[in-house]
């Protein structure tokens, strides 16, 4: 099977979206907090869904593993953890199904299996977009030691990766669905009726008139018909 441009696009874009989603999941930068009360002005607090780190604008040192029980008790943190991990797993499953369904070393590819893989990749994008959108919506409502709260790069990476997976999976699914539909129609027997064909009535070999489809009998056929149906003359001799 020759690889289509859409499949190549999917096999390149889906892993890129998975890498962006993975970075958004593990990196502690869903939001940053500046001007923390009681702390030097150059300290920046980076909060993610797994860890919290501190950095300074005057140095490159980053200190992580900071505990904040109130922050991690928020419902969005637990939901984001589960949904982001589920998105990563579903994407890998979808890529595996696409690989098995569109292998180049077989003569009969399993296009339906590959289409289901594209559907799973599209669903994984939705699983990533939902918690990121929710977190971004309540970004300012989550408890923080300062009011100077800014969006982190993980939100941007998560949006990009989730949208990439959603679009790529949907395009692959629709393309394979269309291809399977065309093959199904091609395999069905076609019955074509030509309205211009001339037919003759059964048992008659006469030609058709131009104004009517009724067969026109020749004069010879008419005479033969009369002879065959003429009653025999019976003469009685008294």
UniProtKB/TrEMBL annotation:
Record's keyword annotation contains S-adenosyl-L-methionine: no
Molecular function in Gene Ontology: structural molecule activity
Record membrane topology: Multi-pass membrane protein
Cellular-component GO terms for this entry: bicellular tight junction; plasma membrane
Transmembrane segments: 6-27, 83-101, 113-135, 156-177
The family this protein is said to belong to: Belongs to the claudin family.
Cellular location(s): Cell junction, Tight junction; Cell membrane
Organism field: Silurus asotus
Region named Disordered: 191-213
InterPro entries, per database record: Claudin, PMP22/EMP/MP20/Claudin
One Pfam family cited in the UniProt record for this chain: PMP22_Claudin
Name of the molecule in the record: Claudin-23
Gene3D superfamilies, sorted: 1.20.140.150
Key words of the record: Cell junction, Cell membrane, Membrane, Tight junction, Transmembrane, Transmembrane helix
């Amino acid at each position: 099977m020759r690889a289509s441009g859409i499949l190549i696009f999917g096999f390149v874009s889906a892993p890129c979206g998975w890498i962006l989603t993975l970075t958004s999941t593990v990196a502690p930068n869903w939001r940053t907090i500046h001007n923390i009360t009681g702390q030097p002005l150059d300290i920046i607090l980076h909060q993610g869904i797994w860890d919290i780190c501190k950095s300074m604008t005057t140095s490159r040192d980053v200190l992580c593993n900071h505990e904040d029980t109130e922050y991690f008790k928020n419902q969005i943190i637990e939901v984001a953890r589960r949904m982001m991990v589920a998105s990563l797993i579903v994407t890998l499953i979808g890529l595996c199904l696409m690989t098995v369904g569109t292998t180049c070393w077989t003569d009969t590819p399993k296009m339906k299996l590959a289409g289901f893989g594209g559907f799973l990749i599209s669903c994984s994008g939705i699983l990533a977009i939902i918690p990121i959108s929710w977190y971004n919506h309540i970004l300012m409502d989550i408890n923080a030691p300062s009011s100077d709260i800014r969006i982190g790069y993980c939100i941007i990476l998560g949006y990009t990766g989730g949208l990439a997976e959603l679009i790529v999976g949907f395009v692959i699914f629709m393309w394979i669905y269309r291809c399977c539909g065309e093959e199904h129609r091609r395999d069905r027997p076609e019955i074509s009726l030509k309205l211009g064909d001339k037919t003759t009535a059964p048992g008659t070999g006469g030609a058709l008139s131009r104004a009517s489809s009724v067969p026109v009998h020749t004069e010879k056929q008419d005479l033969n018909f009369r002879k065959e149906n003429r009653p025999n003359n019976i003469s009685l001799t008294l």
